């Protein structure tokens, strides 16, 4: 890996990043976000809930290893639009699912399977929004990452609107300033954005997510070998090829950052994390230190899971995750 970490120029930036990380370890995200949620939320009301959800995930992974990246992304797209309220799961002619940024979401059948079993075991107790949060955690563990004690107690929302998904989901063509702004609107910092982008250590992208790097003008920062690879699967008229987001797409490791450092970020929004001087030091740091990044990833997933959580009359426990009661 050519990262020249020992050059004098890099050292101060890395120390700054380390200091930031230590500060973040001390100030746990929940101290900043209030904390209506808690671990073990279903211990009395549905003690087997987490086992049921894990079994559904295991079943899903047996059908398709894309289940893990699929549900991790589902939780992110849920939380960024109207908060973590399961609104991404609702069906309807103008629901979030119909929005272009959500066109390739996958893993819905695992949520349905978990919900069906939970309704049979403890009806009306476990929300779809919480199922998503547990599945995202299990997805990380099942691909070799570090888990976290999921905080639960979210209610499900009653509305879902494609226009809000279009407005809130960050686009892969975004530059760093736009990415930071998109995350800031959800109470997440630049550092949180860099850490969560590491989710692209698993899964894939479709042609539409890389096309703007190729046509009409090729991104000058795209290396020729990578450009040729992307173009071969994605001709200008469009194609159905998919590209692994990372060189180890089934392993939850920090190779994503190493790839980005080496100019192998698949989407523009990945590569800019190294290309932009404001995010380069932390991206480089994550490429080197797997354990600190993995730990922070679990912390920031907890923080993301608290975005605009619904309580009381704002929500319900859906009987079917695809429709309101
Ligand atoms: C930083 C801003 C982000 C942007 C611009 C972005 C954009 C995208 C895009 C365009 C894809 C490929 C979709 C396709 O072509 O089918 C993708 C895939 C994915 N994203 Fe992100 N994403 C971001 C952050 C996140 C976060 C925060 C998470 C989770 C915590 C996440 C998890 C994933 C996963 C796991 C995949 C692979 C999905 C699959 O294989 O089905 N992303 N993302």
Automatic annotation (TrEMBL):
<feature type="disulfide bond">
    <location>
        <begin position="207"/>
        <end position="234"/>
    </location>
</feature>
<feature type="disulfide bond">
    <location>
        <begin position="128"/>
        <end position="321"/>
    </location>
</feature>
<feature type="binding site">
    <location>
        <position position="170"/>
    </location>
    <ligand>
        <name>substrate</name>
    </ligand>
</feature>
<feature type="disulfide bond">
    <location>
        <begin position="46"/>
        <end position="122"/>
    </location>
</feature>
<feature type="binding site">
    <location>
        <position position="248"/>
    </location>
    <ligand>
        <name>Ca(2+) 2</name>
    </ligand>
</feature>
<feature type="binding site" description="axial binding residue">
    <location>
        <position position="200"/>
    </location>
    <ligand>
        <name>heme b</name>
    </ligand>
</feature>
<dbReference type="Pfam" id="PF00141">
    <property type="entry name" value="peroxidase"/>
</dbReference>
<dbReference type="InterPro" id="IPR019793">
    <property type="entry name" value="Peroxidases_heam-ligand_BS"/>
</dbReference>
<dbReference type="GO" id="GO:0006950">
    <property type="term" value="P:response to stress"/>
</dbReference>
<feature type="binding site">
    <location>
        <position position="246"/>
    </location>
    <ligand>
        <name>Ca(2+) 2</name>
    </ligand>
</feature>
<keyword id="KW-1015">Disulfide bond</keyword>
<feature type="binding site">
    <location>
        <position position="85"/>
    </location>
    <ligand>
        <name>Ca(2+) 1</name>
    </ligand>
</feature>
<protein>
    <recommendedName>
        <fullName>Peroxidase</fullName>
        <ecNumber>1.11.1.7</ecNumber>
    </recommendedName>
</protein>
<keyword id="KW-0560">Oxidoreductase</keyword>
<keyword id="KW-0106">Calcium</keyword>
<feature type="binding site">
    <location>
        <position position="81"/>
    </location>
    <ligand>
        <name>Ca(2+) 1</name>
    </ligand>
</feature>
<keyword id="KW-0732">Signal</keyword>
<feature type="binding site">
    <location>
        <position position="78"/>
    </location>
    <ligand>
        <name>Ca(2+) 1</name>
    </ligand>
</feature>
<dbReference type="GO" id="GO:0020037">
    <property type="term" value="F:heme binding"/>
</dbReference>
<feature type="binding site">
    <location>
        <position position="253"/>
    </location>
    <ligand>
        <name>Ca(2+) 2</name>
    </ligand>
</feature>
<dbReference type="GO" id="GO:0140825">
    <property type="term" value="F:lactoperoxidase activity"/>
</dbReference>
<dbReference type="InterPro" id="IPR019794">
    <property type="entry name" value="Peroxidases_AS"/>
</dbReference>
<dbReference type="GO" id="GO:0006979">
    <property type="term" value="P:response to oxidative stress"/>
</dbReference>
<feature type="binding site">
    <location>
        <position position="96"/>
    </location>
    <ligand>
        <name>Ca(2+) 1</name>
    </ligand>
</feature>
<keyword id="KW-0575">Peroxidase</keyword>
<keyword id="KW-0325">Glycoprotein</keyword>
<keyword id="KW-0376">Hydrogen peroxide</keyword>
<feature type="binding site">
    <location>
        <position position="87"/>
    </location>
    <ligand>
        <name>Ca(2+) 1</name>
    </ligand>
</feature>
<dbReference type="GO" id="GO:0005576">
    <property type="term" value="C:extracellular region"/>
</dbReference>
<keyword id="KW-0479">Metal-binding</keyword>
<comment type="similarity">
    <text>Belongs to the peroxidase family. Classical plant (class III) peroxidase subfamily.</text>
</comment>
<dbReference type="GO" id="GO:0046872">
    <property type="term" value="F:metal ion binding"/>
</dbReference>
<feature type="binding site">
    <location>
        <position position="83"/>
    </location>
    <ligand>
        <name>Ca(2+) 1</name>
    </ligand>
</feature>
<dbReference type="GO" id="GO:0042744">
    <property type="term" value="P:hydrogen peroxide catabolic process"/>
</dbReference>
<dbReference type="InterPro" id="IPR000823">
    <property type="entry name" value="Peroxidase_pln"/>
</dbReference>
<dbReference type="InterPro" id="IPR002016">
    <property type="entry name" value="Haem_peroxidase"/>
</dbReference>
<feature type="active site" description="Proton acceptor">
    <location>
        <position position="77"/>
    </location>
</feature>
<keyword id="KW-0964">Secreted</keyword>
<feature type="domain" description="Plant heme peroxidase family profile">
    <location>
        <begin position="36"/>
        <end position="325"/>
    </location>
</feature>
<dbReference type="InterPro" id="IPR010255">
    <property type="entry name" value="Haem_peroxidase_sf"/>
</dbReference>
<comment type="similarity">
    <text>Belongs to the peroxidase family. Ascorbate peroxidase subfamily.</text>
</comment>
<comment type="function">
    <text>Removal of H(2)O(2), oxidation of toxic reductants, biosynthesis and degradation of lignin, suberization, auxin catabolism, response to environmental stresses such as wounding, pathogen attack and oxidative stress. These functions might be dependent on each isozyme/isoform in each plant tissue.</text>
</comment>
